[in-house]
Design a protein that fits this description.
Helix 2 packs parallel to helix 3 and helix 7 runs parallel beside helix 8. The chain is of the alpha/beta class. It has 2 domains: about 110 residues, Urease, subunit C, domain 1, CATH 2.30.40.10; about 300 residues, Alpha-Beta Barrel (TIM Barrel), CATH 3.20.20. About 30% of the residues lie in helices and about 20% in strands. The structure holds zinc ion (ZN). The site of zinc ion has 5 residues, from loops.
């Protein structure tokens, strides 16, 4: 079982590799990376002109909805969406029904992922039983079952004491706590960013400090416990300031930004379609200064990861008044086009930094294989097409849910192919037709 990727620009920042090279895959692993490798005995994948061969992209923040909400997404449809978006692995949040707070659920998700045979799936376990913020879950058992991190995502870890204990235990287990930062009393029943547009439209606001207060709390707790904390879906400029300050004094803190938070602001709520529920997410779209702070953090290295917060919801659930609609949008299939179009082609970051944000750092933070094309590692590879013209068509998304604010948008940059464990699991029609 040999596969040769021939004639691409290989970019592997972890090994400082960037050049026109071939990649030979044997038995699901990277065998060699080099110039003009011999073709004998191998199937050949001709890398399209201009394409980039990168270590497989890893999205460490997705909601696969199974068990319990299979009308929104399943492990099979979610991983089909992942590979179509160029992701060879995803880490899934525990806010399923029931919550993934014990080994049985983790094993169920891993079984479903093996049956689907598409992207690798790394479950994230709940910090507290039922993510209720009261009693801590059995983190050790959860890790033994396959969890790569802990989070009460969807909710914050309610008390500082519970967060401290979670950091202590997770730190001993050498896995991160992934932190949904939100002060419940300040968030209240808010539905949009507190500011000009929420006021204009009569929507209840969520201030940026509802997020950053908890970032500050948990950076301080990571500091006294010397345990790693990863700040999820950061949106407020005050939060990035808190992360930057923590990093400067050596705290083990990392953070992620979702593509919608570096692309859109709350002004979109006042666009052609007012009160579009596909613009409702938590944390909310914030104002221009916040978006600019996210872009600055991506450019200067403060932001470690771009993660989608892929949050599928059924059309019927979103077809209600803005106040009543659930938070969240799908993101797996629009992330790469958004990163190319808004960050790379605008000169904010280079290809190497893009791959760090989407592959190298995600692998490092949740301590999973990948993030590199070093020989011996798993042959998880994403073939990126920087100049592919992509028009997002919501009905054509692989995800079971179509709740994207980017329907009809055109981008430059996409995914040509996705390879997991040496198997071609996705190939773009556009590339195949060339
Ligand atoms: Zn969250």
């Amino acid at each position: 079982m040999k596969l040769l990727l021939k004639g691409g620009r290989v970019v592997d920042p972890a090994n400082s590799v960037d050049g026109m090279l071939d990649v030979l895959i044997e038995d699901g692993h990277i065998a060699r990376v080099g110039r003009d490798l011999p073709v004998e005995g191998a199937d050949v994948f001709d890398v399209p002109a201009g394409a980039i061969v990168a270590p497989g992209l890893i999205d460490i923040h997705v909601h696969l909805r199974e068990p319990g909400q299979e009308h929104k997404e399943t492990v099979a449809t979610g991983t089909a969406s992942a590979v179509a978006g160029g992701f060879t692995a995803v880490a899934c949040m525990p806010n399923t029904d029931p919550v993934n707070d014990h080994a049985g659920i983790t094993q169920f998700i891993l079984k479903k992922a093996a049956e689907a045979g598409l992207a690798r799936v790394y479950p994230i376990g709940a910090v507290s039983i039922g993510s209720k913020g009261e009693q801590m879950a059995e983190l050790g058992e959860q890790k033994a079952a396959g969890c790569v991190g802990f989070s009460d995502d969807g909710h914050p870890v309610r008390t500082a004491l519970l967060m401290r204990r979670a950091l202590e235990y997770a730190g001993m287990l050498r896995v991160p706590v992934i932190d949904h930062c939100e002060d419940p009393s300040l968030k209240g029943d808010g539905v949009a960013h507190e500011g000009f547009y929420a006021s204009t439209l009569g929507l209840r606001g969520i201030p940026g400090v509802a997020e950053s207060l908890m970032v500050e709390r948990d950076v301080s707790l990571a500091e006294i416990t010397a345990a790693p904390v990863h700040i999820a879906h950061m949106s407020a400029r005050q939060s990035i300031r808190a992360v930057r300050a923590g990093k400067e004094r050596g705290v083990s803190v990392t953070c992620e930004v979702a593509p919608h938070h570096f692309t859109l602001t709350d002004e979109a709520l006042n666009g052609q379609v007012k009160y579009d529920t596909n613009l409702k997410m938590n944390p909310p779209l914030r104002e221009q200064a916040d978006m600019e702070a996210m872009l600055a953090g991506i450019a200067d290295g403060t932001v470690d990861v771009i993660a989608t917060d892929h949050a599928p919801h059924h059309l019927d659930e979103k077809m209600v008044e803005f106040d009543r609609a659930p938070f969240g949008i799908v993101g797996l299939e629009t992330a790469v086009p958004l990163v190319f179009d808004r960050l790379v082609h605008r000169g904010l970051i280079g290809i190497g930094r893009m791959i760090e944000l989407l592959s190298v750092n995600p692998a490092r933070i949740i301590k999973v294989p990948g993030g590199t094309l070093a020989p011996g590692g798993p042959a998880d590879i994403t073939v990126l097409a920087p100049d592919m013209k992509v028009t997002v068509r919501a009905p054509q998304l692989r995800s079971k849910s179509k709740n994207t604010p980017f329907d009809g948008w055109e981008f430059r940059g996409g995914v040509a192919a996705t390879i997991v464990g040496g198997r071609l699991v996705y190939r773009s029609d556009r590339e195949a037709a060339r």
